[in-house]
Amino acid sequence: MSALDSQSLPVEHKALHVPGLDEVAKVLEAGLAKNFAEAKVEVVDCPDLRAWGLAAEGLGGATRLFDVGGVPYLMPTPKKEKLYDMKDYPKLTDMEKGGFVIGAGAGPWPYLNRNAEMMPNLAVNEDGSIIQKTKISRTFDEDDRYACMDLPDSETRNALLGNLFLSEGKPGKVLKICCKNRTGSKNFVSCMRETLVDHYGEQAVGMGGVFKILSGKVKIHVMPDFSPCPITSDAEVNQWLKFYEVPTPFTVLSTFISRDPGLDLRVEHSHGWGEAEVSSGGHYHYDTTPQQVQYLGYYNLADFIYRLDKPVDTHTFGRD
Question: pTM for this structure?
Fold first, then answer.
């Protein structure tokens, strides 16, 4: 099944509040210190993230968040026709010379003829060629096993939903975020997002980047194939999903926005993959060994939020 014609899809966008990186570093460090025994946030030159398996060097240049489709296209019943082409995403967000796309989304179901998690991670060049580092994670019905695998260069479709951070992939200043020993109840991403909510209030601040969980263990989920029965509540979502505890190191692509400026957004979403011998990957929930956990992340601020193909019939369940 072909991807939808991107030129036929509705796109909205809004400018975000963009404080200085130094200011955000102080705000985040204070908030993270309430949830971790050790927390440090500083402004640094971005390291070459290709060493972390990313498709581009940095997180700089023309930064924007991009919210594609949404959970209402997955449930109560899947709208399988909602297939998008990630190669179109830079142009859809007014990046005429290409861009670097990372984040969390649903995999291209026609590729495996089933539903899957996806870790979008590709650089789209001005001539339309790509550097593809995207991974997907799928389950096996017969025994609840799952596997994480690379997508080929020829497969750039994204089904149903996506929460993405786009940039020119350039080196530059970013936030380096280090945390150890979780003492509070919030996961790494939620703690940062809620800290920004508390500080900036009605001003919407968006961020995207990548983090590694360097030690401890992590709870993730992997979506199985599409449910044969409609899913209508968070309780039914949790019954349908397959949950796993996985080892570290675990690399996570992450986006979040402090508040929804009226675009029906998923305010945070993070997908990652493991580097241990076990092929792990999926939706990040939280670490399960708080006294041993260590996080290292690099994030940048987004200048804009773009919204593609916002569902008309919407709901709020299934967005955890």
Answer: 0.97
